[in-house]
Amino acid sequence: MGGNERQIPDLDKVIHERARLRILVFLASSAESETGFTDLKSGLGMTAGNLSAQLSTLEEAGYIALRKTFIGKKPFTGVSLTLSGDKALEQYLDEMESMLAAARGRR
Amino acid sequence: MGGNERQIPDLDKVIHERARLRILVFLASSAESETGFTDLKSGLGMTAGNLSAQLSTLEEAGYIALRKTFIGKKPFTGVSLTLSGDKALEQYLDEMESMLAAARGRR
Known about the structure:
The structure is a homodimer. Chain A is of the alpha+beta class. The first copy, chain A, is built from five helices and three strands. Chain A has helices spanning 13-16, 18-28, 37-44, 48-60, 83-105; strands spanning 35-36, 64-71, 74-81. Chain A has a three-stranded antiparallel β-sheet with strand order 1-3-2. The two termini of chain A are 19 Å apart.
């Protein structure tokens, strides 16, 4: 039997990377449309450096938007999923679900 | 709101890597307990070099077993999921399902 009967999807590389996937899922599962950098950092247990680097990659891909402002005198960075990020995540989730179904089909 | 209310799982690094995940899902979704190297290669559209490297990593983790033999005069490499690989994949799938549910909870 060849592999053509069961398509194993390619998966979006930008989204699939573990830290970035965790960031996107965190944003997508948030009740608010915008999440503060600090909440994201503590919620995911990531270092500020790593989180910043991953957010840059996601921003370059157009999947998230960063908004820098001040709350009182404190700088605040708000992170939100863009429409394009939401769609890309949705497609990734569909592909992942079909993989789960494939992997579990036999069980 | 902090992140404690929604746990974003860590995900097994050995399994989560795209190529390795595709290999494991291919093996897990196969009707046979053993898949030939060549079938795996063509089914996943991977190069022999990349597939070999990823299989070595999975073998070192104890997630797959490789069996080298001959069919007639042709060398044959059979790849199968081990019990430990099956369990690790199962746990990964559980974690991924909970992430999917989290990401889609809001939708």
